[in-house]
Amino acid sequence: MFSHFEDKDIKCGYIGPENRQYDVLRRMLSSNEITLQSATSFGSLGYTEAASYDIMFVDIDGLGGIDRMIDTLSNFRIDNPGVPVVMISDTFSRDDFEKSRQILGDVSLRSPVLYPSLELSLFEAVENNKSWQENVMYHRENIGA
User: Which of 15, 25, 108, 138 is the most exposed place for a label (fewest CB within 10 A)?
Assistant: First the structure.
């Protein structure tokens, strides 16, 4: 079991096609008693449904690539700041657990996803998301929504 999630029920969502990437993630997570559910698309994912996920995985490649997803991801992040987002793409040069793409997601994983990277991504996405929430709240309070 992923050590830092031992006594917690974690529900993860997945936006993208139910392809091999989805199957691999689902198997790795389920072996650690973490649920991965195929979420609907961004367009039909309401605030209440989005907020029900502890972490949202997004298959960037399966959704047409990062260029097609920039506006959708940034809007999702602003509308749902409390949902940690893990982006997955084979175009990323490496796994990125920093906040370098914060407007789009909390963590970036290079596909194919490796087990150690997945474990670290769960922890880092939650931690990085705290900073994202602070940024969104600061913007709303000081600059206007």
Answer: 138
Cα–Cα distances in Å, from 114 out to 79, 107, 108, 118?
30, 14, 12, 6
The winner for highest mean pLDDT among 1-5, 38-42, 138-142 is 38-42
At 21 the pLDDT is 93
- Percentage of residues in the chain having pLDDT higher than 70: 90
Q: What is the DSSP letter of 55?
A: E
The model's pTM is 0.90
Residue ranges with strand state E in 16-101 = 35-38, 55-59, 85-89
**Count: domains in the chain:** 1
Q: What is the CATH number of the domain that holds 127?
A: 3.40.50.2300
- 39 versus 15: the higher-pLDDT residue is 15
User: Could you check whether the bond before residue 112 is cis, i.e. omega within 30 degrees of 0?
Assistant: yes
Domain interval for residue 121: 9-142
